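DATA SHEET
Item: assembly model
Revision: 1
Owner: S.N.
Input lines:
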Amino acid sequence: MLLFRVHLLLFSLLLAPMAIAQVQLGDTAYSISLHAGYGHNLTYGSMANFDIDAFMPINQHFEMQANVRMSTANVHTMGVQLRPKFALPVGEMYIEDRLMARFVARDQVNEFLHAISLGYRMQYVNVQFGLINRVMMPLPYERNTLDKYIVEPFQLLYRVEGFVRPVTSPWNIAIAISNADNYMIERPWTPMLYLGGWYDVNEHWRVRLSGKYKNAGMFHMNAHYYAAEVRVGGEYRF
Amino acid sequence: MKNIYIYLGSLFLVLGSIFTACGPDARLDLVGNIIGSAPRTDVRFADSEKYNAEHPFVTIKAPVENYRVYVCTDTHITTDFYNWQNFIRAYRADLLCPVALHLGDIVDASNHYPDVVNSFNEVPSNPLKPDTIMLVAGNHDICFKQWDEYLENFKTSVYYFIVETPLGQKDLFIMYDSADGTLGKKQLQWMRNTLEWASKQNFRHIVAGSHTHFFMRDNSQGIATNYPIEETYTLLRLFQSHGVDILFTGHSHSREVTLFDELTCIIVDSMTDEDKKPAYLIAIMGETIDYEFVNLPIKL
């Protein structure tokens, strides 16, 4: 248990100085972004979210991304994404290894996710498919034994994203469907819809606005509003 | 690699369902999958509460201290009800069983509620014991705009009842509506209030029953949807922290027993006539709750 806590601490320290950015073809600048958002769902009610994200294109074959979310719903998330990438005659292929820890303090549950996916991105489209491994761990740790860890292995991860202009444009609008974002990963049968855009104020500053909508009961034959979120923020590109 | 094939297969199933959902014998409600055609959870909860207000929750007398509760789910009745009638015969024959539970998806698609009622009435009742079966709605029971028909036949989908033993020990059974994968705001508050009240009473056991299951531990559930992840944790912790001993669900058609902290979550097998291993569960309500799965004979 002590070893686990040390790992958790190291993981936290690794993420602490980092922050986020939406990743796309042609991103070659290190960046940090801050977002604030309003969220609502039928279980928690209203909440405010604060996101810090970092994007690090280490070299032309490898990039990293780190995300932190603090929420007034008392659910906090840290994640890191490692992304080897390979240029193709058209577009770019990438492998994404994603680790995420979600601390659902309000319900005394920790959730750990690991996802590996294969993606292909071009000027107008980004497509990604992979597998997720989810571990649920009720708190406090002292009460747990191994048989109380719940593992949900090998769920599908997907993201299909389209842009109205080339991704290198100074402004753009994007629409996406996915069961995963930087702060949570849903079961495959709960897709989330995204609509967002950005505007480059100057060489260094970019403003972002995005929204998310989530249903309950899709593929349950009784789809039903469950959650929505709006976030706005700025990104500084070094 | 096996999982990739399974998911690709599932995607084809989804696409297939889109095409098959439009025919006269449709089993999957395409419109419901995308925008929902049944009344929202809060509306259904209000309908259930309206009935509950006029019909107070019941107390059922158990014949012995260690009585038995028969639990079945996912009968998906069409014009076939072989397993359903075998289940009815079994619980009616058991003199130690004061109540049986059906956890939803009693019908498969539209126009089969009369088949449910007729098949139930065809099985002779047992004059030596009361005949009580408690139901909740599953997603198949309300798709294709069937909620009104469900209400007409079964009256409510959110309620609790108490079973009292000869020595005065009481067990609480909470049945709730998860037919669209969320309890919604009002029913969740009802659940909080009910559990707050229950945890201050001196119940021997608290049992919860509903249709939708919590976990996705393997690929057996196919394309059946769970709760959103936020609601999954909130409900699990709510049940666990208020002393719910056991939670019975269906929906995935695949038997599963999971221990979340101190809460036992059981998915009961389906009882469709096409099922190769139809089964139900018998819970033995003593000082502890024991259970056994009972396989049904396969329809030849």
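QC remark: Residues 16-25 of chain B have pLDDT under 50 and may be disordered.
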